[in-house]
Design goal:
- The chain is of the alpha/beta class.
- It has one domain (3-133): Rossmann fold.
- Helices cover 41% and strands 18% of the residues.
- The chain contains five helices and five strands, in the order E-H-E-H-E-H-E-H-E-H.
- The protein has helices spanning 12-24, 37-45, 55-63, 86-94, 119-133; strands spanning 3-7, 30-34, 50-53, 67-71, 98-102.
- It has a five-stranded parallel sheet, with helices on both faces.
- Helix 1 runs parallel beside helix 2 (37-45), helix 1 (12-24) packs across helix 5 and helix 3 runs parallel beside helix 4.
- The longest helix has 15 residues, at 119-133.
- It is globular, with a radius of gyration of 13 Å.
């Protein structure tokens, strides 16, 4: 099973997802794909097995992933202060992978029905969903 974590900016969400998955399931192979080198480096420090950076890395890895996890902005063109290109958003949206999206109500979008909660609770919920699919 190929699990790809995609993040941008400083990679904080992706780093936390990887840390928690590795702590609970050390044998999982996790792919970290950052929209910038800082995000990729942070996710690799957290224990990701593989890392790559940029548009093409997202496009290639989204195509054959079973699960994609990251902040919800990864499916919105121009989100994360412009780091999510239309090509990235399209590749993730078109992927047959199951997407576990962590709701972050920023970048001019609001997810109706999502309760305001600490990021740690939102990430814990995402981890539980990924674990249910293993």
């Amino acid at each position: 099973m190929k699990i790809t974590i995609i993040d941008g900016q400083g990679g904080r969400i992706g780093r936390t997802v990887i840390e928690q998955l590795k702590k609970r399931h050390g044998d999982l192979e996790l792919y970290a794909v950052g929209t910038n080198s800082i995000a990729t480096a942070e996710m690799l420090k957290a224990g990701a097995d593989y890392g790559a950076t940029g548009d093409n890395a997202v496009i290639v890895n989204a195509a054959d992933s079973d699960i994609i996890a990251g902040p919800i902005g990864i499916v919105f063109a121009n989100a994360l202060l412009g780091e999510i290109t239309p090509a990235i958003a399209t590749a993730i949206g078109a992927s047959k992978a199951f997407k576990v999206l962590i709701p972050v109500n920023r970048c001019n979008h609001y997810v109706a029905g999502c309760v305001e909660a600490p990021m740690s609770d939102l990430i814990r919920n995402a981890i539980e969903k990924i674990e249910s699919m293993l």
